[in-house]
Amino acid sequence: MLAIAQTELVFLNLNQPDQVASPASCDRGQPSFGVLGLFMLPQYVSGTGDYTFDCKLKTRNVLLDLGSAAATEDATQNTYTLADGTELLFRPKTLERICDDVLATGFTAPAPATLDGKPISGVAVSTPAFPVLVRRGAPPPLWQDSVDVGHPGRLAASYCGWKAQLRLSPGRHTIVVDLGNVAPGPARFIYNIRV
Predict the structure, then answer these.
(1) Bridge partner residues of 79 (DSSP)
(2) Could you list the mean pLDDT of each consecutive 10-residue stretch along the chain, which spans 195 residues?
(3) Which pLDDT score is estimated for 170?
(4) Contact (CB, 8 A) for 133 and 29
């Protein structure tokens, strides 16, 4: 599943507490021809403001995130309250239910986006729990959570959000994603792509 592959890439490339995107640029984390012919564009992690990515790709197929979250397991007693009032711990067996609720209540529409000035639509996705690798230098508390749950360097996660798979023609393209509904303030990702 593409959302799982992109989420794995995001976690594998998290290495700074104030990281804006993961991977931090188009030339990190995967070759220019992508994985199996699909290039996963950097995904929003945190922050505000406009960020530009210059991408030189050898594939015409890209995967774009249009606003999302990931629920991850931890060893604390912190809970998530579903819309119906049910409280769930962040455990592998509950992550998908948490993500389903986040998608239904918090991410009800994709972030507005355009490809060369034309609107892009997305597909809502919520995944079952799957393992992600966490680097020792990952932003807190991810590494410590992996230690506390008994398998350092690995956590169960579930993705919830919106994805768009795009096929680009050879040449230059610009994708703009307005992440104001996901970020704590105004934020836009601008991808300048050359295929």
Answers:
(1) 89
(2) 92 89 93 90 94 96 96 94 97 97 94 98 96 90 94 96 97 97 93 97
(3) 97
(4) no
Report the SS3 class of residue 105: helix
Alpha-carbon gap, residue 27 to 168, rounded angstroms: 18
Structure tokens at 148: 């506390």
Torsion of CA 84, 108, 95, 133, to 10 degrees: -160
Instruction: Say whether 147 sits in a helix, a strand or coil.
Output: helix
Taking only Cα atoms into account, the Rg of the chain, rounded to an integer number of angstroms, comes to 17
Question: Can you give the residue range of the structural domain that contains 131?
Answer: 2-194
Of 176, 174, 67, 177, nearest to 123 by C-alpha is 67
Task: Determine whether 185 is exposed, middle or buried from the number of CB atoms within 10 Å of its CB (0-12, 13-18, 19+).
Answer: exposed
Predicted model pTM: 0.93
Among 131, 126, 114, 118, CA closest to 177: 114
Give the pairing of strands 87-89 and 187-194: unpaired
**Overall domain count for the chain:** 1
* pLDDT value for 36: 83
pLDDT of residue 16: 83
